[in-house]
Design goal:
The chain is an all-alpha fold. 32% of the residues lie in helices and 0% in strands. Helix 2 runs antiparallel to helix 3.
Length: 111
């Protein structure tokens, strides 16, 4: 039976999120994750991140508490740009849609 891991859903967690989540773990908890990682997926970047944090703790760093909510991999902002519509651009100097021609046989941009 597998020991309970200190981070829920550890095996599905992306590397970018893992870096934030391990900051609050103790040396014993990191060792548990490291043993689990080596016995299962053995992902080199994850092992490097875990051993790097272990070395920081051994050199005097302290576990730092993080926010209670789950960190997100998606930025908290939304993109604000012009609305996309299915219609092609209109007006002189604008190219026609790909593969279309005006009545002169040239694109609108050549008027």
């Amino acid at each position: 039976m597998t020991a309970r891991l200190p981070i829920p859903d550890y095996d599905e967690m992306p590397l970018s999120t893992l870096g934030h989540r391990i900051r609050s773990l103790t040396e014993d908890e990191l060792n548990t994750l490291l043993e689990h990682e080596r016995a299962h997926a053995a992902r080199v970047p994850v092992i490097e991140q875990l051993t790097g944090r272990l070395n920081e703790l051994r050199q005097g760093a302290e576990p730092t508490p993080g926010p209670e909510e789950e960190p997100s991999d998606v930025p908290g902002h939304s993109r604000s740009s012009s609305e996309v519509t299915p219609e092609p651009p209109r007006g002189k100097g604008r190219p026609t849609a790909h593969g279309t021609r005006s009545t002169t046989g040239k694109g609108i941009e050549h008027d």
